[in-house]
Amino acid sequence: MDTRQLSSDGPKVSEIGFGGWAIGGGWGGTNDAESIRALNVAIDRGVNLIDTAEGYGDGHGERVIADVLKSRAEPLFVATKTPPAAGPWPPSPYCRWQDRYSAAYLRDNVNARLRNLGIDRIDLLQLHTWTRAWNDDPQPLLVLRQLRDEGKIGLIGVSTPEQDQDCVIQLMRNGLVDVVQVIFNLFNQDAAAQILPVAAETGTGVIVRVALDEGALAGKYAADHLFAEDDFRHRYFAGDRMSRTVERVDQIREDVVAFGLADDYTLADVALKFALSRPEVSTVIAGMRTVEQVEQNTRTSQLRDLPPEMLTRLRRHNWRRGVWYSGK
C-alpha cells in the first residue's frame, strides 16, 4: 500500500483508507464478525487510516473498531467525527455555533469518542459538518485547539457540507484546520477549482470521501436497482436518480473500454485512481464491510496511474447535479 503525507505536520497514511460508515449501520444489515474480519484484512494489506464517526450507528462503528485496535500491534491512525447538537443538517445560515458546537458540548462529545474507541487520544477529530456563517467567529475550532493542547486530540479537521464545500477554504487559509474531508469523484469534481489548490498552498491534508458515489461508480447497480428502506442509499438514489446515474456510469465504462483499460481496471479502480490522481489528496476512504470489498479497494493502490490523456477524458463526466434535479 502506497502512503501519502496527511497535512504538513501529519503522519504518512495509506492512500486508501478504511471508510467505517457501513460497519456502524445505515447501509442495511450489519454483521460485526464480518466487519472485524474486513478491518483486519485491510490492516494486513497496508491500510493504516480508519475513518469513523459518532453518527455511524450512534457510536457502534467506533466500538467495533475499538475491538480491532485492542488486537493489533502496528500503529494505526484513527479519525472520527463529532456531529453538531440537534438541529438542521447541515446547519442553516441562522444557526448559532453556541447552540450546535458549544464548548461544553464539544468536550463531552470528544470524551464519548475516546470512550467508544478505547483510546487516550484521537489522531484526528473532525467536526462532521459546518456552515460558513461561523467562519468569522470559528469558536468551535478554537475549543478543539484547547483539547489538542490537553492531549485529547491530534489533528483538527472539518468534513464539508455537501452543498457548500467551499466554506472550508477560509478555514484553511486562516490555519484553523489541519485536514479537510471533501467529496471528490468523477461526478463531483468541484474541489479541483479551489479546495485542492488551497490545500497545497496551506499544507492542509485532504481526505476524499464518496469517491465511488455510494457504490454507483463501481458499476454494480442496474438502472432499476432498489435498496431496503433501512439503507441510506434508499434515499440517496430515490426517484429516478439511480437510472440517471447508471446511464452516466455506462458512459464512463465506454471510455475505459476505448482506452483499452477494461482488462486491467475495474470501474471502481478507475474511480479511485481518478481521485488519487490529484497530488493534494492525502487518502481516499472507501467504504468497506466485507473482505471482498477490502480486496477490491486495496488492490487499486498497486495499479499503474491512469494515463494523463485518460484523466483528461474523464473530466467530461463532471455532473453538476446540485441537489440532483438542477443538472437533469
UniProtKB/TrEMBL annotation:
Start and end residues of each NADP-dependent oxidoreductase domain: 15-317
Under Pfam families, the record lists: Aldo_ket_red (PF00248)
Does this UniProt record's set of keywords contain Repeat?
no
InterPro entries listed in its UniProt record:
AKR2_Oxidoreductase, NAD(P)_OxRdtase_dom_sf, NADP_OxRdtase_dom
Q: What is its EC number?
A: 1.1.1.-
Highest taxon in the source lineage? Bacteria
Q: List the keywords (alphabetical).
A: Oxidoreductase
Could you give a GO molecular-function term held by this entry? oxidoreductase activity
According to UniProt, the name of this protein is General stress protein 69
Q: What is the lineage of its organism?
A: Bacteria, Pseudomonadati, Planctomycetota, Planctomycetia, Pirellulales
Q: Which gene encodes it?
A: yhdN_2
